[in-house]
Specification:
The chain is mainly alpha-helical. Among the domains are: about 110 residues, no CATH class; about 110 residues, no CATH class. The chain contains 17 helices and 3 strands. Strands 1-2-3 form a 3-stranded antiparallel beta sheet, with no helix packed on it. A hairpin with a 2-residue loop joins strand 1 and strand 2. Helix 4 crosses helix 6 and helix 5 packs parallel to helix 7. It is flat.
């Protein structure tokens, strides 16, 4: 029940406590009898609403990660194309454990890309994971061909392991192109190029997007798309002014049964040495499209003239890299980025160019020694004639000993 506040503006102000309210409810004869069957049925109808099977399935599907759904679709389509070129291969959902163990061995050895080349080992593993998710989505939960404890698939697991090692030995999957972080010198360049700032709505948009990534470790685009104003809180305490960010659902925190012991992000960032904000900033109500958000980091780095592999994922990598280079504890880095393990957060940390240069200097070979004069050539004395030998001896003495030194000698000079 909502109150119409304008109707109360001329009424006297009255203070109530919970005891007064209970007394009124007990003595008011006009109040409805909450225990009557009619009221109980009406309350039930207002409070609880039945749902259909389709609504339940839509709820489950809505909480699946889009990239995960895409990977599952790619995996089953790849399997079905392989199956179409094979004979007598049953549907994946119709195989028993023995059949799965048999055909999955052959699948991981025979599957190829559309151009006929072999998949890298990690991609092959992702395909197998996608097939397992597809089986789960079909409500088949009694098989898991990736479970080491399930001995029914022990042979398949050995084949998959050997195949991945073989692919790696061929050089497949050894070159992983990682996105680059925005290093401090690059960030300063972006400001100097006036890509960041408050001089235009576009510059303000770039600034807000980047520092949401850097300060609060937001991911590529999904967390930006779902941001709400009430997730930010501006306050002040004995340490100074701060912005507090309350995270919600993300890739690493969904809030379901598996994450019941985890907590959502709760970050307090103190505003110490930030750039000055202009007054009178106006914000539009139009929401940025998903494709626009996906390309923001490329626009920022492109306009600033930065060279490298920059994507929206560079924002979160920037957050982890800056904290890592400053010597911040890994646990604090994880609280900002949202990672749940040290192994995961270490993939985001990148050494800066100065540190890499120092490491290279330590490992470089020693500097080459410089000779003022070249060494004389080696000459075979046996092949020299008498005159040549004397001439060579004279040249050697002149070259090596420009000043003769005599010890314990007696000289007789004739007039």
């Amino acid at each position: 029940m909502a109150l119409d506040l304008p109707e109360l503006k001329n009424e006297p102000v009255m203070d109530f406590n919970i005891g007064d309210i209970l007394d009124i409810m007990e003595t008011d004869s006009s109040a409805p009898n909450l225990s009557s069957p009619e009221v109980e049925i009406e309350m039930k109808n207002e409070r609880f609403e039945p749902v259909s099977d389709d609504e339940i399935q839509r709820l489950i599907d809505s909480q699946k990660n889009p990239n995960t759904r895409k990977n599952t679709t790619w995996a089953i389509e790849t399997f079905n194309k392989w199956r179409a070129e094979r004979d007598n291969v049953p549907l994946l959902t119709e195989m028993n454990s023995e059949s799965l163990n048999y055909w999955m061995q052959r699948f991981v050895l025979e599957v190829r890309k559309q151009d006929g080349s072999e998949y890298p080992p990690r991609s092959l593993y992702y395909i197998v994971c996608g097939l397992l998710r597809f089986i789960r989505d079909e409500n088949i939960h009694n098989v898991n061909f990736l479970d080491e404890k399930d001995h029914r698939f022990a042979v398949f697991q050995r084949v998959l392991d050997a195949r991945m090692k073989e692919l790696l030995s061929k050089g497949l999957g050894t070159k992983v192109r990682q996105v680059d972080p925005i290093l401090p010198e690059n960030e300063e360049k972006i400001w100097n190029q006036k890509v960041f700032g408050m001089q235009s709505s576009l510059a303000l948009q770039y600034t807000v997007f980047f520092y949401n990534c850097k300060l609060f470790g937001l991911r590529g685009y999904d967390e930006h798309k779902s941001l709400k104003c009430d997730q930010f809180e501006v306050g002040c305490d004995e340490r100074g002014k701060y912005i507090r960010f309350h995270g919600r659902s993300s890739k690493t925190y969904k809030g379901g049964l598996k994450h019941i012991q985890l907590q959502n992000k709760d970050i307090k960032h103190y505003c110490l040495n930030g750039k000055p904000l202009a007054v009178g900033i106006r914000y539009g109500e139009q929401v940025l499209g998903i494709n626009k958000i996906k390309g923001l980091m490329k626009e920022i780095t492109g306009q600033a003239g930065l060279l490298g592999n920059f994507t929206n994922h560079s924002g979160k990598r920037t957050c982890a890299t800056h904290l890592y280079q400053a010597g911040v504890d890994e646990q604090e880095i994880m609280s900002r980025t949202g990672h749940r393990s040290e192994t995961a957060v270490r993939k985001y940390k990148r050494s800066n160019s100065v540190l890499l240069e120092n490491v290279s200097k330590v490992l470089d070979p020693p500097k080459m020694m410089k000779f003022e004069e070249p060494l004389p050539p080696v000459i075979n004395q046996e092949n020299l004639s008498m005159n040549d030998s004397k001439e060579f001896d004279n040249q050697e003495n002149v070259t090596r000993n420009p000043q003769s030194v005599f010890n314990n000698c007696v000289f007789n000079f004739k007039p």
